[in-house]
Amino acid sequence: MYLKSKLSWNVIIPAEILEVGGLMLQKAIIVRLMDEFASKKASKNLGYFMAVTSLEKIGEGKVREHTGDVLFPVEFGCLTFKMLRGEILEGVVDKILKHGVFLRCGPTDKVYLSHQKMADYKYVPGENPIFMNEKMSRIEKDTQVRFIVVGARYVEAEKEFQAVVSLEGDYLGPISQSSV
Amino acid sequence: MSGEEEENAAELKIGDEFLKAKCLMNCEVALILEHKYEQLQQMSDDPTTQISQVFEKSLQYVKRFSRYKNPDAVRQAREILSRYPLAEFELCVLGNLCPETVEEAIAMVPSIKNRGRALDEEAIEKMLNDLSLIKKFE
Fold first, then answer.
1. Which residues are within 8 A (CB) of A69 and not within 5 positions of it... i.e. 6 or more apart?
2. What architecture is the B71-137 domain classified under in CATH?
3. What digits encode the pLDDT tens for the residues B26-45?
4. Which residue from A46, A85, A88 is facing B97, i.e. has the nearest CB?
């Protein structure tokens, strides 16, 4: 689910840039904020950081003693994405492996659907392997699939979420391309 | 949320931030990110340095999974869903998945059938009909 959040961060502006003042200073703060936002990438609680959407307030700058850099508290609105346990989502098949498939969903491609969680589908090997059930419903690369999130965990080292998902439930499985 | 184990979106047991904060439908995110994408390209001479992978992948995703494309239809979809007693999270799941039948809607968002909700099957049916009308006239 995508979520609009409000955050307060500190942005550090190097002493050299401070001389310009006024609008240029504001622009420097925004650019620095957006860089940091993009490089932070994700957090356990909020999920993936998508984009800064609004600037609410730039507080009083505080000079740091040794460097002369100035630290500005900034309040801003942003867009985040997080997968929740029990949530039903749609994704696109990215990779087919013997024991399951990886799906892309939102900003992540670490969404794993194990063959155990789609028991009626059987692996069909070949140059382009697929999963298929008795009703000839196919799960292949680029198929759009509706699934339920069984669990999601945050891996700090990679700043990535890994999710395990399932097709066990009503109205889950491949969706026809025309309906989207 | 006291513990992660208890989280279950199907029963609307989700973190406070998701219950109170504003959730967004894919189609709304698509409008925001597309606008942002244009801004970023104007701001920087070398757009690739500004646009993160997370941003790019999400833009692709929400464009593909948006049920409503034009801004008016997106606004109307939220307006219709807002008439019903739905949590933000439920509203967005329905707007994203656009279930065709009451049974499908309840399978997608089981919490709307919880006892004490002022939402009977008739109301759900009307909601789904109104939503499908937007799609027809888009």
1. A12, A13, A14, A15, A63
2. Up-down Bundle (1.20)
3. 999 999 999 999 887 777 66
4. A88
